[in-house]
Amino acid sequence: MNPLFEKSVYVARREALARKMGSGILLFLGNNDSPMNYPANTYDFRQDSNFIYYFGLAVPSLAAIIDVDENRTILFGDDFTIDDIIWVGDQPSISDLASRVGITESMPMARLQDYLVRNAARKIHFAKPYRHDLQITLANLLGKNVNDVKSLASIELHKAIISMRSVKEDREIEEMEKAANMAYEMHTAVMRHCKLGATEHQLVGVATGVAHGEGNGFSFPIILTQHGEIFHNTDHNVALQAGKLLLVDAGVEGLMNYCSDKTRTYPVTGKFTRKQQDIYEIVLKANMEGISLVKPGTPYRDIHFAAAEIVMQGLKDLGLMKGDVKEGVRLGAHALFFPHGLGHQLGLDVHDMEGLGEDYVGYNEEFRRSEIFGTANLRMARHLEPGMVMTVEPGIYFIPKLIEMWKKEGHLAQFINYDKLDEYLDFGGIRIEDDVLVTADGRRVLGQPIPKSVSELEAIVGL
């Protein structure tokens, strides 16, 4: 049985959600086990984050409703049979599970459809499914075409959930601090094992041991690569090579499912070349100054642009870019080297609540997504609030295909010294990322500080 907060926490969250919604039936489907190659051989189970937030139970094959009009909350699920118990041991009954999270009513799963059919004339709110099995289940429960289910999801419910989950409670911050400290242990272990003769795969093994030894494992598939210019490179079948930079983007999910997300980049040999250090120091400055700008009321879009200006100015100082920095960033010239956003919210999900719609999480009526390359990838633009947790993760990447395309088109040539870029086509990429809590009067980086200055990294890598 997974650890839980006090039952009053879940009761209060459900009551707050009901008040926000005002009326209707709120339907929550928990996740099911997902088979790897046959039904009994499954991937590690991960409960839906919204289900965790309001019901706490990280148990497969559950569902719940909050009937706002009738002031009822019902947990649906099936008790284990003796055939199940033989294989997995005795398990709590559904009524027992319900009681642990402050629910007094429970029913077998077969009763869920009966309840929904009886109340089909009322508004039934549900979140957009991201798993195909639940998309099919929703279609069957509601008597809808499976291809229409996603479009029928309740935007009203999405916005209500986002308004609650965006601002973390103190108890959530404590769990995220634990996850951040686990990430410290994981990243520093990888740093110490990073030396010639090892392989990326072996370093992933080191990280895996810490992540599973301390928590629930990785909070997302680990990115550990000497090709940092590939943002989500999960291919690890490469030996460590002298002269290469190793980018490690990895977080740990704690025992209560809250996540960390940290990135460090350092030379495989533990010693930066002059060229590597020049680029690294630009990214480090963007990271640290970006963190310093985090405070309530500040639009995160403005912090992104500030970091982008640091990147462009640094590259201009090295002769790789030219022209007016503010104008270059406005037009997206920096995005040749920094084509993603500065960061995203963090919580029970790594890209917190992304399944509810990035434009609802990071944007609103005041902030609309840009259509300019690079800036369009900013996940979070709106004003920061106390209790939000953000990642701050600037980067500089030399992506050969992108450079080739822009150079051929002469794209934004008034800002980019394309000929000099030939010296950097095999450079790779650098990203530095920290998890930052927005406090009442500023910010606090979560977790024990992971080495990130040049001197700190050169002192620990390969020890």
Written account of the structure:
With 463 residues, the protein is α+β, with helices and mostly antiparallel strands. It has two domains: 7-165, Creatinase/prolidase N-terminal domain (Creatine Amidinohydrolase, Chain A, domain 1, 3-Layer(aba) Sandwich), CATH 3.40.350; 170-460, Creatine Amidinohydrolase. It has helices spanning 7-21, 49-55, 82-88, 94-100, 110-118, 132-142, 155-165, 170-193, 200-214, 274-292, 300-317, 325-331, 358-361, 400-409, 418-421, 454-460; strands at residues 25-29, 35-38, 41-42, 63-67, 72-76, 105-107, 124-126, 223-225, 245-250, 262-267, 389-392, 395-397, 429-431, 434-438, 443-445. The strands form five sheets. It has a five-stranded mixed sheet, with helices on both faces. A three-stranded antiparallel sheet has the order 8-9-10. A three-stranded antiparallel sheet has the order 11-14-15. The model has no long low-confidence stretch (mean pLDDT 97).
